[in-house]
Amino acid sequence: MKWMSKRFTFVVIPDANQSVQRYSVSGLTIVLIPALIILLAVCSALFIVLFSGQAGNLKEAKHQLSLSESGYEEQLKEREDTIAALEADVTALSAQAKHVETKMSEIAELELQLKEIAGIQESEVRISSGGVTVEEGGQGGEELLLPEDLNDALAAETLQELSSMALQMDEMKPSLEATKEALLKHQRILEITPTIWPADSRKITSTFGVRRDPFTGRAAVHSGLDLGGSRGDPIYAAADGTVTLSERTYPHGNNILIDHGRGIETRYLHLNKRLVEVGDKVKKGDLIGELGNTGRSTGPHLHYEVIVGGEHVDPMPYLQEDREEK
Ligand SMILES: [Zn+2]
Hints:
Layout: H1 2-5, E1 7-12, E2 21-26, H2 27-118, H3 147-191, E3 204-206, E4 209-212, E5 219-222, E6 225-228, E7 234-236, E8 241-249, E9 253-261, E10 264-271, E11 273-274, E12 281-282, E13 287-290, E14 301-308, E15 311-313
Helix pairs in contact: 2-3
């Protein structure tokens, strides 16, 4: 390496007319200058490569960020829409629950009325209406609730209302079944009880009990109720039953006896015509004959008897309703 410490002289001859230029440099300088130039070039190349790479990455990152930002905004908007829809649902559901609750208490009230009609004692059937409560604005008004808290509270309250209603319905079902059974029984009893007028006429010509006999003039027991009318007027079965007698005898004339069960019978005397035979099943209000003047009778009328346990009773208390037009 001795040559590095030596000095070198460069001679530059620009033109024949100009003076010669001399440059004197050390050997070290000759080595360092190219080395520096190469280093600088390498560094520059390296910097360019790295920077351009980074710039690309940055651009990509920026792009990605803007993409995810818009995606996030979209998601946020969707979520807000979903929450708004759910809030609306909860509010509607709560209103619906309150409406159903009101309807249920109305049904319970109706059931009570039905029981009253059917004459059911409260002890016979468990009353379900006790469990029905209608609360308005359930959560105490003093507390200031934020909208989302309010919504949560409303949802919780609605849930509670719905489960309470489900319980009430479970309780109501057997109670309603029992009421229905009782009503059906009541209806059946009504069907076999002689409650209707056996003729269209309301003209009572003779009542039940002791009276003066129109033939002998002496006091005698009148075993039925006489209804005045015209010959041929329709005569109706006073209740559902089976015809046990349909005959013409003296002094009853054409007469019909109907057995209604439970020891109750009705009898229709002095008929013009009999329209049913023994064994016939009749319904309350069915046409069974015509009003007449047969047997021991002083004029066209129906002699109507109600027999309970074999004893003649006053038919008057039984005449409670008009026959339903069929
Ligand atoms: Zn009579």
